[in-house]
From TrEMBL:
Ribosomal protein as UniProt keyword: no
Biased composition (Basic and acidic residues): 128-140
Protein name in UniProt: Oxidoreductase
SMART domains referenced in this protein's UniProt entry, alphabetically: Ald_Xan_dh_C (SM01008)
Enzyme Commission code: 1.2.99.7
UniProt keywords, alphabetically: Molybdenum, Oxidoreductase
Gene3D superfamilies: Aldehyde oxidase/xanthine dehydrogenase, a/b hammerhead, Aldehyde oxidase/xanthine dehydrogenase, molybdopterin binding domain
UniProt enzyme class: oxidoreductase
InterPro entries hit by this protein: Ald_Oxase/Xan_DH_a/b, Ald_Oxase/Xan_DH_a/b_sf, Ald_Oxase/xanthine_DH-like, AldOxase/xan_DH_MoCoBD1, AldOxase/xan_DH_MoCoBD2, AldOxase/xan_DH_Mopterin-bd_sf
């Protein structure tokens, strides 16, 4: 390896950074083939029912309007595996916001005006959008998201809880949350000689390609999907969404390229959301704080379109050792939009409840909250019994506490007061599973001395191009500027989506294998043939072989908050998190991902919530004026907020040693903030977010 090779772990700048700041990076809605038209959706204005009729006369009379697509004039599509994609196929309206028509026009403005001119008449039916703990339609599904069994039982958790000398029995609520990536969901689609091309804002082009091939009854080789640059997704772009099907339908109908960018106000009803979760956690411990029983029941909602169950009780199967355990998922089907993935689905919601309950247990046991977690750190994964490939949670807690200054904390709540302002500190643990999927990649030595790496990875703003370039350069032993990294095109070697913190581990494994093979072939003859020399890799067999180890990333969050008892405002003054997430491949992008997750967790704790109006039937907070994501004024500036890590060298992962870092930053952060608010005030808050109205009411009631 030469001295100029960018060493893995160093903070190499983003390969695409200059293109992004210069405006050269092209996003899905910015592709403008000749003759491009624009589309605008018409969402259903009722909570449940069916379309009786669509009057498009006024819309078609407007200048520039080309067509209005409805269920009446749209040719049938083949049924999709995901029924969310069965758009404009029948008159049914399963929830408010379901797209019932699409207007296509010469300009974006004309398409929007046309959509506003469409008149839709409905037959309505009674609807229910309210999740309650005693809902008569609640049931236990077979599985939760990710294929996790809905129920896992070990021993006699209720009996052990009843006999435990220290107990916590508490309910916690997390509201619906929305992803709101900076770039809305958008696609530009066109047909040429029976071939469909779609430039889509997606976290995984191969999944979109497969879905389009299915619904349009095409072989996959007649569909190309590109996602060259994606402006965030947070899970909402992890599965194909209706906009890309609608853009392709409009392009086929008009014979022209068509761009459809969903209006932000339509995103909550069209692209998934984090479903609300109502938790009950019961912890029983001995007098020394060692857990005897863990019970976690999570109730959530799903749509009537398809079942999606947030796996919020799964983290309790991983985190702490106990001889008795019960983890249960329940779900209620309602007339709501279909929930889906949002950054750390299951873990983000479930760890808020579990880590808040652990804080309550520490208080009742008279233990420091860090010490309680240390005492209950298991040697093996509790539910499966498998050994951890590596688990440095205790080290994260200890090192995080040292850097945060936890040792100076007065454990008594409500004692740090300056006038009406109270200050407190809190801690919570974090975990996220190691996920890896099969992937293919190729590496080519070019006659000019350069190298080309090709894999259909997707960079959703995380720095995938950069890190894959580092992995390739490291394996080949060449400077990074001699490498060209090609990603974001379904015609490239097949790769999994960017999601589940699995992207770099999956793509990097294949890239490493391809480059290692190429380096071996070049070892005896460093001059490639005139046509270049290519090595290919496919990790399917190795990945599907599985592992006897339980593989997870871990971390610890620390937060200091100030609560204004007059206004009820809670502000985070300091936050520090320490992680054990495998080998950190790029320090710069890793810190960015950790901090981004932490900030999102602060938003979950303090500002973000959505509500479903029981009469209206839809989400009330439909844009960024009503749905409050944290902005710079809401979070402390570095170094008051920071993240650190152990550079784990876990031999049981993959050749590059990465565990994934995109999601663990949010997991547990909301609990750390909530626990800090309790320490500041002495009042326990069990419903997110901690908005001033809730805080003032709780302070007035003293509970």
């Amino acid at each position: 390896m030469t001295d100029t090779t960018p060493e893995l772990g160093t903070g190499v700048p983003r390969r695409e950074g200059r293109d992004k700041v210069a405006g050269a990076a092209r996003y899905a809605a910015e592709y403008a083939p000749p003759g491009r038209a624009h589309a605008w959706p018409v969402p259903a204005a009722v909570a449940a029912g069916s379309v009786r009729s669509v009057d498009d006369t006024a819309a078609l009379a407007l200048p520039g309007v080309l067509a209005v697509l409805t269920a009446e004039n749209t040719p049938p599509l083949a049924p999709a595996d995901d029924p969310v994609l069965d758009v404009l196929q029948n008159a049914d309206v399963p929830h408010r916001g379901w797209i019932v028509a699409l207007v296509v026009a010469e300009t974006l403005e004309a398409a929007r005006a046309g959509a506003q001119a469409v008149r839709v008449s409905y037959d309505t039916r009674p609807h229910d959008v309210t999740l309650t703990r005693d809902h008569p339609d609640r049931y236990v599904p077979e599985n939760a998201n990710g294929g996790h069994p809905a129920v896992r039982e070990r021993g006699d958790a209720p009996g052990a809880f009843a006999d435990a000398p220290v107990r916590v029995d508490a309910a916690y609520d997390v509201p619906p949350l929305h992803n709101h990536p900076m770039e809305p969901h958008a696609a530009t689609a066109f047909w040429a000689d029976g071939h469909l091309t779609a430039h889509d804002s997606s976290q995984g082009g191969n999944a979109v390609r497969a879905a389009l091939a299915q619904v349009f009854d095409l072989p996959e080789e007649r569909v190309t999907v590109t996602s060259a640059h994606v402006g965030g997704g947070f899970g909402s772009k992890g599965t194909p969404r209706p906009h890309v099907v609608l853009a392709a339908l409009a392009a086929r109908h008009t014979g022209r390229p068509v761009t459809l960018a969903l209006p932000r106000r339509d995103l909550p009803a069209s692209v998934g959301h984090r479903a609300p979760t109502l938790h009950r956690v019961r912890l029983g411990a001995d007098s020394d704080g060692r857990l005897l029983s863990v019970e976690h029941t999570a109730l959530t909602h799903t749509s009537r379109v398809k079942e999606f169950v947030e796996q919020a009780a799964v983290p309790a199967r991983v985190m702490y050792g106990s001889p008795h355990s019960s983890t249960v998922h329940e779900v209620v089907p309602l007339d709501v939009a279909t929930p889906s993935w949002m950054r750390a689905p299951g873990e983000a919601s479930g760890m808020y409840a579990l880590e808040a309950a652990m804080d309550e247990l520490a208080e009742r046991a008279g233990l420091d909250p860090v010490e309680l977690r240390v005492r209950n750190d298991p040697a093996d994964e509790p539910d499966s019994g498998r050994p951890f490939s590596s688990r440095h949670l205790v080290e994260c807690l200890r090192e995080g506490a040292r850097r945060f200054g936890w040792q100076d904390r007065d454990p008594r709540p409500g004692v740090r007061r300056e006038g009406p302002r109270l200050t407190g500190t809190g801690v919570a643990a974090a975990t996220y599973p190691v996920l890896v999927s099969p992937c293919r990649a190729s590496a080519t030595a070019l006659p000019d001395g350069g190298y080309r790496v090709r894999v259909n990875a997707t960079d959703i703003g995380t720095g995938a191009r950069t890190v894959l370039g580092q992995i390739a350069a490291d394996a080949l032993g060449v400077p990074g500027d001699r490498l060209r990294v090609e990603i974001g095109d379904s015609d490239l070697p097949r790769a999994p989506l960017a999601g589940g913190s699995s992207g770099t581990a999956s793509w990097g494994w294949a890239v490493h294998e391809a480059c290692t093979t190429l380096a071996r072939r070049l070892a005896g003859n460093p001059e490639p043939p005139s046509g270049g020399l290519t090595a290919e890799a496919d990790t399917t067999e190795a990945v599907e072989a599985g592992s006897p180890y339980a593989r997870h990333a871990f971390g610890a969050h620390f937060a200091e908050v100030r609560v204004d008892t007059d206004t009820g405002e809670v502000r985070v003054l300091r936050a520090y998190s320490h992680f054990a997430a495998g080998r950190i491949l790029n320090a710069r992008t890793a810190r960015s991902q950790f901090l981004g997750g932490m900030v999102m967790g602060i938003g979950m704790a303090l500002t973000e919530r959505s509500t479903l109006d029981p009469a209206f039937g839809g989400f009330v907070e439909r844009d960024l004026a009503a749905y409050h994501v944290p902005v710079s004024a809401d979070v402390p500036a570095p170094p008051a907020i920071d993240a650190g890590w152990f550079d784990e060298r876990d031999p049981h992962l993959n050749p590059v040693g990465g565990k994934g870092i995109g999601e663990i930053g949010i997991v547990g952060m909301a609990a750390a903030v909530g626990n800090a608010a309790h320490h500041a005030t002495g009042v326990r808050f069990r419903s997110l977010p901690l908005t001033p109205d809730k805080v003032r009411a709780a302070l007035a009631g003293g509970t």
